[in-house]
């Protein structure tokens, strides 16, 4: 199964909580109220996203006001 790596550039996070609200499977807010990726509740700021979820994660990237969610190249 193919994966892509998603990460959050915390410096650009606007703390809107949108990604954590819309896709809590992969995003949560940290103690500083900035977004971070996670897998199963374990914080991993380079989360491997399975292919079946690429479209929903891409949607969050596209709608992020701070444009802080990216695919790792």
Provide key terms for this protein.
Alpha-Beta Plaits; three-stranded antiparallel beta sheet; 73 residues; 2 helices; globular; alpha+beta
List the helices and strands and how they pair.
Elements: E1 3-8, H1 18-22, E2 27-29, E3 35-39, E4 42-43, E5 47-50, H2 54-63, E6 69-71
Antiparallel strand pairs: 1-5, 1-6, 2-3, 3-4
Q: What report would you give on this structure?
A:
The structure is a single chain. The protein has 73 residues and is of the alpha+beta class. It has one domain (1-70): Alpha-Beta Plaits. The protein has 2 helices and 6 strands, in the order βαββββαβ. It has helices spanning 18-22, 54-63; strands spanning 3-8, 27-29, 35-39, 42-43, 47-50, 69-71. The strands form 2 sheets. The protein has a 3-stranded antiparallel beta sheet with strand order 5-1-6, covered by helices on one side. A 3-stranded antiparallel beta sheet has the order 2-3-4. A hairpin with a 2-residue loop joins β3 (35-39) and β4 (42-43). The two termini are 18 Å apart. The mean pLDDT is 90. InterPro entries: 4Fe4S_Fe-S-bd (IPR017896), ET_Ferredoxin (IPR052395). Its cofactor is [4Fe-4S] cluster. It holds the Pfam family Fer4_15. Residues 4-32 form the 4Fe-4S ferredoxin-type domain. This is Ferredoxin.
């Amino acid at each position: 199964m193919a994966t892509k790596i998603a990460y959050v550039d915390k410096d650009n996070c606007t703390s809107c909580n949108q990604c954590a609200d819309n896709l809590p499977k992969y995003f949560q807010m940290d103690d500083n109220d900035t977004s971070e990726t996670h897998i199963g509740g374990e914080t991993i700021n380079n989360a491997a996203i399975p292919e079946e979820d690429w479209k929903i994660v891409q949607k969050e990237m596209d709608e992020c006001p701070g444009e802080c969610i990216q695919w790792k190249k």
